[in-house]
Amino acid sequence: MSSPTLAAGDASRVYPTRGVHGRVVEQIGRRILGGELAPGAMLPREAELVRELGISRTAVREAIKVLAAKGLVESRQKLGMRVRPEGAWNLLDPDVLAWQAASGPSPELMDHLVELRWMIEPAAARLAATRRNADQLQALTSALADMTAAVDDPLAYYRADLDFHRAVFAASGNPFVDRLGAIVSAVLEVSFRLQRRSLIPIAVGLSMHERVLNAVRARDADAAERAMDEIIEEARIELEHAIGASS
Description:
By secondary structure, this protein is mainly alpha-helical.
């Protein structure tokens, strides 16, 4: 399966990139995570950013506030704007994850992201099996149906796959766990970007997701956890191959 380019405003994107404000956040964030603006480096002065990006001072200031909230920059009176040390970056922020991965994900980064999925997704599936309601079960069922209908459309398949995993988090019944779904969204986007050709036949991928759905429907927590484990293991193998092929 070939991998089309995801638009900046794709549904997986957490911070909106439409409009001047969002584009500035995206541009500066990518420059920081890509290493162009290293930790400790001074950002261009406000007036320079206004000229360079062709935007208003207000848009620059609002963008800097967003980036500061993500732990990437700090602004001090008379000293200017500086990139903060990596230890201050909010690595769990979905945008920071996405920007870091877009800069050229390393095997170490991908190992860490897969480990993160293993820590939270099987547990979310277990909770979903014991707590899901009828509407949440229907959301899972609809997402799997959309995946099945999109086997010839890689981007639509990816979006439906993402909907499935987000539905699992929503069905956990825990609002904190549900919010972690945004992190997994960023990880799945990275996987999709790297994937040139799927190692997992469509029928196999659909079957694995169907096992999660069936376990959640049957309220079988152990089976739901095992089925999600299988999905993540297959994704790990595929990512390992994709990174090796691109190096």
